[in-house]
Amino acid sequence: MSMDITFLGTGSAYPSPHRGASALVLRTEGECWLFDCGEGTQTQLMRSPLKASKITKVFISHLHGDHLFGLPGLLCTVSLNCNPQASQPPACVDIYGPQGLRRFLRVALVLSSSQLLFPYAVHELVPCGGQSPAEGQLDPRVTDSSDQLHPQEQPGQTIHLDTDSDCYTLFEDKQFTVKALRLFHRIPSFGFCVQERDRPGRLNVEQLKKLGLKPGPLYGRLKNGESVTLDSGQVVSPGDVVEPAIPGRKVCILGDCSSLVGEGPAKVCQGADVLVHEATLAEGHRERALEHGHSTPHMAAAVARACRTRVLVLNHFSQRYKPLISQKDSEEDDGGEADVRELKRQAEEALSGTGTLVVLAEDFLTLPVPLKRP
Ligand SMILES: [Zn+2]
Ligand SMILES: [Zn+2]
């Protein structure tokens, strides 16, 4: 099954002609999950090969506008493009994010008299005290969502930290488990860990033929890990004829942060195939990055190192860092301190010897996440 990540916006603070505000799509066969939805995400989607109507789940890392202001508009446009005569009723769009998101979306949709042709539900994560300075914590009166639901809104869950694992379990299905983890930022922020389930290894057909086994129900039993006894009395165990299981992929997408909070995040992200981490400013601006709850390439690299990540993708760049594409034809390309490649160099320097690959996110970059065949 194919899986890839498409970056729709890689700039911090606001969308510019050079970089869109934060948004990326994790695509698996048939489904698109949107992570963050800064202003302008819908136009970025239109310019990409992706279809907004394929988005089934949305994950919002934190409530800063550069990650959120695009959401009401995107939902309205998806609705405009819905077919009201479709034979099947539209599926509910599940939206996950910090406490306050339900009210934000409800007020935006109600005050603009926006009706949707599909239902939606907002599942809220309850932040903990240590995720921001005191002034970044919202008054419960502001986040209260006990009033009337929007006509297309379905009741969502309120998800608390699981103190045993030190993370939040958002959902589990046949293919994936999705967890959220705590991050420190100016306001409470979260990361998301998408873990694909391992899949059973393929049957070694040649070996089966040698044993005289014909295709049929016995194949299924062996694939499911059962031993079978042949007419001859010979016992065939799955290890004889089934190749090793294919490990599920793990993709971790972190919101704005200057650090992880607690022990859980590094555990949950351990061995990630891809870690998407912000690197808003270069090492020379570390103080300023910290002051705003952001990271530098060395800080992102330290997280990748602690999690033993295969690939570290840097994103959420200050708008001072122009994209590589525009740099190529630019006279000003002097390799100076506003060169985005400097961020990559700094992360690589901090990861030397680890084998972790560093990638710079760019708007419309699609990064495949291949299966790890043993
Ligand atoms: Zn941001
Ligand atoms: Zn932020």
TrEMBL record:
Keyword entries, A-Z: Endonuclease, Hydrolase, Metal-binding, Nuclease, tRNA processing, Zinc
The protein's assembly and partners:
Homodimer.
Q: What's the protein name?
A: Zinc phosphodiesterase ELAC protein 1
Compositionally biased region (Polar residues): 143-157
Which residues are in the Metallo-beta-lactamase domain? 20-316
Q: Where is this region: Disordered?
A: 133-158
Any keyword RNA-binding? no
Per its UniProt record, the required cofactor names are: Zn(2+)
Cellular compartments per GO CC: nucleus
Q: Which Pfam families match?
A: Anti-Pycsar_Apyc1
Task: State one molecular function term (GO).
Answer: metal ion binding
Keyword Lyase among UniProt keywords: no
Matching entries from SUPFAM superfamilies are given as: Metallo-hydrolase/oxidoreductase
